[in-house]
Amino acid sequence: MVLKAVLFDFNGVLINDEPLHSKLLEQILIAENLRPNPDEFREVCLGRSDRACLSELLARRGRVVAADYLDKLIIKKSQAYLQQIAAIERLPSYAGLKDFIFQLKAAGIVMAVVSGAVRSEIELVLQRLDLAQQFAVIVAGDEIWQSKPDPAGYLLAVQRLNQRDPALQLQPAECLVIEDSFAGIAAGKAAGMQVVGVANSYPFHMMQRLSNWAVDYLSELELERIQQVFTGKTSLLSDAEG
């Protein structure tokens, strides 16, 4: 078995924008005459799609809305996100991200984004970070109904990568997932993939407990070591334990 693809989460992995999402969700609730609770963001929303997040936030407050009304709330939040991102001169990304991505490209490993975020948000950020050309496939939250921890997004990414290049013959076990949330780690594992938990949103010890491999920073990921794990020449578990 060899490493053929790396599938990246978006929020909290490619861009440090989770505080912005938390603020925008609070604004949505206030506009709905509902009281926000900042502590709920990590519990309810981190790693999940806007649809899943807003549905639960509303349900916790006794509010049941029709699907089309929920769509309007999602669109409203996304428009606000795009406006704020466009106004930021230098987007908050993570140390080591671009170096790791360019190592993968040089090694011929294909990359995809699998996220609960809206596609327009992902595309804008990737363009602003000058990374849009590096990702062969995007699976966005407004394209599928199932939110992480459901593995559907990761499995769809494999399907789309194979459609794009049938010669790839990609299998889930040949993919590495990069995640920062509990829901995302669970989704990657349920898809039959190995998962690196990067401690951007939760402490290292939590990532270590849940993922196959944990790092504090993406700059700690060594591609040669990762490839050795997939060929069975070294142990992923030994790194996670160390």
Automatic annotation (TrEMBL):
| Cited InterPro entries | Beta-PGM-like, HAD-like_sf, HAD-SF_hydro_IA, HAD_sf, PGP-like_dom2
Record bears the keyword Magnesium: yes
Q: What Gene Ontology molecular-function terms does this entry list?
A: catalytic activity; metal ion binding
Instruction: Please provide the record's keywords in A-Z order.
Output: Magnesium, Metal-binding
Quote any Pfam family the record assigns: Hydrolase
Q: Which Gene3D superfamilies match?
A: HAD superfamily/HAD-like, Putative phosphatase, domain 2
Give the superkingdom in one word. Answer: Bacteria
Q: What cofactor requirement does the entry state?
A: Mg(2+)
Similarity comment text for this entry = Belongs to the HAD-like hydrolase superfamily. CbbY/CbbZ/Gph/YieH family.
Which NCBIfam families does the annotation name? HAD-SF-IA-v3
Q: What is this protein called?
A: HAD family phosphatase
Taxonomic source organism: Pegethrix bostrychoides GSE-TBD4-15B
